[in-house]
Amino acid sequence: MASANNFGIEKGKSDVAIKWINEFIIKNNKSFNISITNNQLHTLNFGDFDLVEWSGDWSIARNIIKKSSSKLNIKVIEAGYHKKHNIVEAFFGMSQEYCKVYSSGKFVGTLILKKKSGNWIVDKEKRG
Fold it and tell me: Range of 34's domain?
């Protein structure tokens, strides 16, 4: 069972999204847990996001995050794309996370995140 804290939901809309996601999970009999963290992510091109933590199947997580963007007309960050890096960089937490940003279910850009003091920060961003 995978888990992560690097998906994001548009700030101010995460409570509604989490409620919708939980209803979707129950309705479709999926094994998945999601909650809002205290961490936020600020982007210049896409606005602010509440980071969420989740546990469950990776494909379910990606599907639900993207589906919530479309159904609720919100922006979301779908993270979890990695580039192969030096093992030393990964050991010291210097790895990067590549993300897709969706708005109302449509791909609008990409982000590259880095860990700083245990939190994700935006390193680079690009409109789609």
Answer: 2-127
